[in-house]
Design brief:
This protein is α/β, with parallel strands linked by helices. The chain contains 15 helices and 15 strands. Strands 4-10-9-8-7-5-6 form a seven-stranded mixed sheet, with helices on both faces. A four-stranded mixed sheet has the order 1-2-3-13. A four-stranded antiparallel sheet has the order 11-12-15-14, with helices on one face. The longest helix is centred in the C-terminal third of the chain and has 20 residues. The structure holds pyridoxal-5'-phosphate (PLP).
């Protein structure tokens, strides 16, 4: 079939090896999405569903935004590609300036990557490069956290802490990585927002520094709110304490804001929401509203200066031997700029902040269902943990399938449903999400 007469139903599902998918079962009973508009998706059977996870957190502005489509298509007609090494074009600089206006003060040097994984990989390399630039080449260790997710390159996989993602690849992981415990305690089961207990979990970083020598640790990376494991909100004071321990030992702090960045918490970044400033912030997902891959590392100015100042290379030689063919390509930048315009015009972070209490109330209204064993959330993100008759690990996907049939789409991880509505949602959309979740869960329970 040529691209001009493509239909929504492919002739064969065999050749495409799908990512993070149960390929065998999916291909027997596929779920194909054909159209998306606003907060709704349509599948290949013509069924309309509400998108309750903003397409993997990517599209908070809703699907099919004309402003973005038009900006990308205009850009492609004018300049479709230009090499990003020792050459450039105006748009990528303009977008960097716009991003730097929204990041915390001083974190204003912008390195483009292709996605969240490459942003994390880049941050890991920048941490090493910075320490070397300062004459400190013995720092090679990194600290991550259990239940953390940072993407799927080797570095990002290693600092992550979701066991299924690492066990097959144990033989090739990065050396010198330690993990702190995750922050979820039994008493956090139905806590709204930040739990009051658990700040002492931050002392894990101090213990690792004691055991391995703080002077050997390059950086500590955490998601301010652990997203992919099902929304683990940090205990009050936890992130601040992590910052203090990093400062004590000269360890860089990386906030992976691939999910929390661009308004998910109600502030531009979780860093601002929780009042803790890291040294680097990684972001991706909502940067282009999901339409063209793009990741970003925002770096402290002083770190950028150190790397540049330490380079004694001849003209034309990079200060940092790192980059991607698709770093800041014009189409992604055009989408990113259009997204920034919408953020500003529609005051989108405040909109998310204003809708958050309503969404969190709705989510917690599911507490009366006996199958729901934990609900946690912050801003426009939440996790609903299920326990059904099935073995642990099975309920999440089974619930997802029943909810899909009930007309609400989201992602599950293990037994947890990941719910992250779009910021353009109105109250009636939140109501619809909650009502359909309730129907899907009840249908599964009865099945
Ligand atoms: C916090 C975090 N970091 C990194 C990544 C990896 O992003 P990508 O899938 O774009 O490589 C993700 C993806 O879900 C994420 O949630």
């Amino acid at each position: 079939m040529s691209s001009s007469n493509r239909t929504n139903i492919p002739n064969s599902l065999n050749e495409h090896w799908m990512p993070f998918t149960d390929n065998k079962n999916f291909k027997k009973n596929p779920r194909l999405i054909t159209d998306a508009k606003g907060v709704y998706l349509t599948n290949h059977q013509g069924k309309k569903m509400i998108d309750a996870s903003s397409g993997l957190f990517c599209n908070p502005l809703g699907h099919g935004r004309k402003e973005i489509t038009e900006a990308v298509s205009k850009q492609l007609e004018k300049l479709d590609y230009c090499q990003p090494f020792n050459q450039g074009y105006g748009g990528s600089f303009e977008l960097a300036t716009r991003i730097a206006k929204k990041t915390p003060e001083g974190i204003n040097r912008i390195f483009y990557t292709i996605c969240g994984s490459t942003a994390v990989e880049t941050a890991i390399k920048i941490a090493i490069a910075y320490h070397r630039a300062k004459g400190d080449s013995k720092r090679f260790r990194f600290v991550g956290r259990e239940r953390g997710y940072h993407g799927m390159n080797i570095g990002a996989t290693t600092v992550g802490g979701m066991i299924n993602n690492v066990k097959t690849f144990a033989s090739v992981l990065m050396p010198g990585v330690q993990h702190m415990r995750h922050t979820h305690l039994p008493e956090h089961k139905f806590v709204k927002g930040q739990p009051d207990t658990g700040v002492e979990m931050a002392e894990d970083l101090e213990r690792i520094a004691m055991n391995f020598g703080g002077e050997n640790i390059a950086a500590c990376i955490v998601e301010p709110i652990a997203g992919s494991t099902g929304t683990l909100v940090p205990p009050k004071g936890y992130l601040k304490r992590i910052r203090e321990i990093c400062d004590k030992h000269g360890i860089l702090l990386i906030f992976d804001e691939v999910i929390t960045g661009w308004g998910r918490t109600g502030s531009a970044f979780a860093s601002q929401e929780f009042g803790v400033t890291p040294d680097m912030i990684t972001m991706a997902k909502a940067t282009t509203n999901g339409v063209i891959p793009m990741g970003v590392v925002a770096v402290k100015e002083e770190m950028y200066d150190a790397v540049l100042d330490s380079s004694k290379n001849p003209e034309g030689t990079p200060e940092l031997f790192h980059g991607y063919t698709y770093s800041g390509i014009p189409a992604a930048v055009a989408a990113g700029l259009a997204v920034q315009d919408i953020f500003d015009k529609e005051d989108i972070f405040n909109r998310a902040k204003e809708m958050s209490p309503y969404f969190q109330e709705g989510l917690h209204s599911l507490k009366d269902l006996k199958e729901v064993v934990s609900i946690r959330g912050y801003g426009m993100m939440g996790g609903v943990e299920m326990r059904m008759k099935d073995k642990p690990g099975k309920s999440g996907f089974q619930t997802f399938k029943h909810c899909y049939d009930a007309g609400v789409n989201f992602k599950n991880t293990g037994d947890t449903l990941i719910i992250a509505p779009q910021f353009i949602c109105e109250k009636k959309h939140i109501d619809e999400i909650i009502e359909k979740l309730r129907t899907g869960i009840s249908n599964y329970s009865k099945s």
